[in-house]
Amino acid sequence: MRPSKDDILNEIFADDDPDGLLAVKAKVAARSADQRVVDKFADINAFITANGREPEANTSRMQEYLLHSSLAGMRGNSAYWDLLAPQDLHGILRPRPEEILEPEPAPDPEPESLDDIFNDDSFDLLDDDETGIRDLRHVPKETTMPGYIGTRKPCPDFADFVDLFEDCQRALQAGKRVMRAFKREQQIEVGNFFVLKGVMAYIAGVGEREPDANGKTNARLHCIFENGTESDMLLRSLAAELYKDGRRITAHEDRQLDNFMGLEEDDQSNGFLYVLSSLSQAPEITTYPHLYKIGFSRGPVADRIKNAANEPTYLMAGVKMEGVWECYNMKPNKLEGLLHTFFGTACLDVQVAGPDGRFYTPREWFLAPLPIIEQAVAMIVSGEIVKYRYDVGRMGVEVR
Description:
400 residues; alpha+beta; 3 domains; 4-stranded antiparallel β-sheet; 19% strand
């Protein structure tokens, strides 16, 4: 059998590589979505064996809380029952006997006429001389029902989101993210995580925001749940459920601008700082591998960029949101100005033809890797930015 390319390279450099640094290691196949679920269920079984009880929804014990959330998601998705049946050592997937309701007694015979109804006034409800049975009060004339109600269904590409959920769970365990009460509909943005009735949810998409029948802004969501399902529920419907029985998960601590730990009830959001990448296919744009727009918006970012393909400031092309930070107790336009100054030597210099035929030179696009932009944001918040400058040549931050 012919040796592989990796075998030949390992043999050539063997004498010069006593520590084995150049040895090519076999790639480890990534776990499938089903295998991740099986592994998580094994963790739940180990917890029950060690503690003699199921994991509880106690946020003071974050690892236990995450196991509780995962178990709730598995119970809520019957597709996992057959998959996990061989591992169900404690019989925790199916409803317990005491949870099965007794059959309801047979209903009384239905009345066949109005005379049957009036003759069966066993509670003496119809003999009020002051109020006639046809005197209706406080009854709305018309009720507006939604034309379409979002439903949950299996997510066909759930494997694409598994790593996001696992990263979020690890960040929660490490204290890099925390759970807080849900307070504002504006917190429902692409890339944000929530916990709804014990199941983690990820906002993968927000449709066009439009006024509903009551004149309030609404939008169709693409919401992915950690139990492998997805929903296209409305933004206001999700908000209503989160107010009743939900929590929000803060952004990773490296991406926070609002110091969530210090927020009070009366703190107000002042807007959003955002970082975008361009979807333009123009050669003068695609030639730059690290090109990002740094901007701010007083309202939801999705509303601000929905017409990007027709605006010179967005290079007359669609854009992708790479980072969004909600700003409390600071003005996002001033933060934006500081970032523009810091990356000023790396500002893109290109002209774009606008819809009116005139040429424009956008000044909010910069040549800087996304992690460096995030680092600069954190240093502005901490006040350390004055000690550093951006070196466009090596695309890194260095001491002044």
